[in-house]
Amino acid sequence: MYIEDVLIDEKLTELQNFYYGQNILITGGTGFLGKILLNKLFTACPGIDQIYMLVRQKKNSNVTKRLEEIFNDPIFDTMKMMKPKFRHHIISVPGDCMLPDLGLSPEDRRILIENVNIVFHMAATVRFDEKLKIAMQINAAAARDIMLLCNEMKNLKSCLHVSTAYSYCPQARIEEKFYAAPGDTKNLILLTECTPDKLLDTVAEDIVKTFGKNLPVGVFRPGIVISTYNEPVSGWIDNFYGPTGVIAGAATGIIRTVRCRPHGFADMVPVDMCVNSIIAASWDIAKKYNSTVTLKENGEKLTQTPKVYNFCSSKENKITWGDFTNKTANYGTLYPTTKAIWYICYANRPNRIMHLLSIFCLHYLPATILDCFSLIMGKKPRLLKTYKKIHRFMHVIEYFAMRQWDFGIDNVRDLWNSLSERDKELFFFDMNQLDWDRFLQQYILGVRRYLLKDPIETMPEALSRWNRLYWMHQIAKIAVFITLAQIAFFIFLKIF
């Protein structure tokens, strides 16, 4: 090691030193988690040698062009200023998790085997209603192929498989451990090729356990990942998954009813805190593995079992679905959007019958009337079609919002406590210290700015529009009340 390297090392924290000079492989790097991971690695971990990114080639867009496109996102602005030559440290690797052996060419595979030290496997389908065969290939077969690749890597220090806290949702209590798979995972992947879509569940974690035995491997299970808390900007989000779609729909006045368990806990986590924990977990895996190897060298035989990290809400600092809907509705009225078609007024209705009745009266009925007017005006009707899509999405979210899980988080808590004070500042992920009010306020602003494409400069216009929508909402309620009263009075006269 050169003298200047030693001087740099002395200034770095223990966690930063782990990443210094390392080559990293990332799958899923173009996704939501992947973007924040890239940003954090380049801004908080100096000295990284190369980051190999597995990128799927799309029609009319090669992997290099796809990679360049993601860096146009404003979240990378700070990173570009701090590390202007970051592109010199990123190598795009053509690949596809839907293909055998990750779709890697023999030459690319050889390069990864020779050079990679740290692996973040984050490529997965995030749709909870994905077709089984697609989910098995992306989430399970790709996990197997990554583990097989890791077994060949000559200088592997750590591999982290990013899963989900809901991998074992039939369990009421989910500990940081592996649970029995529904069958032999080695055969399940082959079986799905000739099996009906609804018969089997995903088995990615058991594949990691089976094929990653005695490797420096771990599994990371985040809760429902939503917008950033602090870094690189507060409130950033780039997708409508999870509760975000519901919030965006409510903010624009389209969604008027949701079905949640009011007193159930919503295990949502900020994406930047999630990524900080992922970076720390990879370091922890390597540290624990090296300790095990030392014991083996001293004559004690040990079997290395992959470690599991549940990154979910702290028991001491949780938020209920009722509080979540109330707070987001309140912040939605404080920061309205010019994209709204109606006043924000959505309610949590846990009763299924009341929820379905509300959908009919507040969604389908107005949509049918407005679509009829559109036809009369010679315009294309869209609202009914939009609601059909929204309701399918809401039905998926409803499963998680109406149920309660108890997640063990001891490994994540121990990981946090093992960090130095400087590393805690650089890689903050203590859910005990999360300020939910501030977070949700920034979350609403982020949905407005990044998803609805409505900059903060339009706030005066939005408030003016909001005021008109408010009075239209009140007039509509009065009109409905008068109409119902007249109907009731008419029925009363007919009966008596």
Automatic annotation (TrEMBL):
Gene3D superfamilies: NAD(P)-binding Rossmann-like Domain
InterPro entries: FAR (IPR026055), FAR_C (IPR033640), FAR_NAD-bd (IPR013120), NAD(P)-bd_dom_sf (IPR036291)
Compartment annotation: Membrane
Coiled coil: none
Keyword NADP listed: yes
Membrane-protein topology: Multi-pass membrane protein
Catalytic activity of the protein: a long-chain fatty acyl-CoA + 2 NADPH + 2 H(+) = a long-chain primary fatty alcohol + 2 NADP(+) + CoA
Record-annotated Fatty acyl-CoA reductase C-terminal domain positions: 362-454
CDD domains per the UniProt record, alphabetical: FAR-N_SDR_e, FAR_C
Keyword tags: Lipid biosynthesis, Lipid metabolism, Membrane, NADP, Oxidoreductase, Transmembrane, Transmembrane helix
TM segment ranges: 475-493
Cellular component terms (Gene Ontology): membrane; peroxisome
Pfam families, per database record: NAD_binding_4, Sterile
GO molecular-function term, one example from the UniProt record: alcohol-forming very long-chain fatty acyl-CoA reductase activity
Domain Thioester reductase (TE) span(s) in chain numbering: 26-278
Biological processes, Gene Ontology terms: long-chain fatty-acyl-CoA metabolic process
Translocase among keywords: no
EC number: 1.2.1.84
PANTHER family (alphabetical): FATTY ACYL-COA REDUCTASE-RELATED, MALE STERILITY PROTEIN 2-RELATED
Function, in words: Catalyzes the reduction of fatty acyl-CoA to fatty alcohols.
Annotated family: Belongs to the fatty acyl-CoA reductase family.
Name of the protein in its database record: Fatty acyl-CoA reductase
The organism of origin for this protein: Glossina austeni
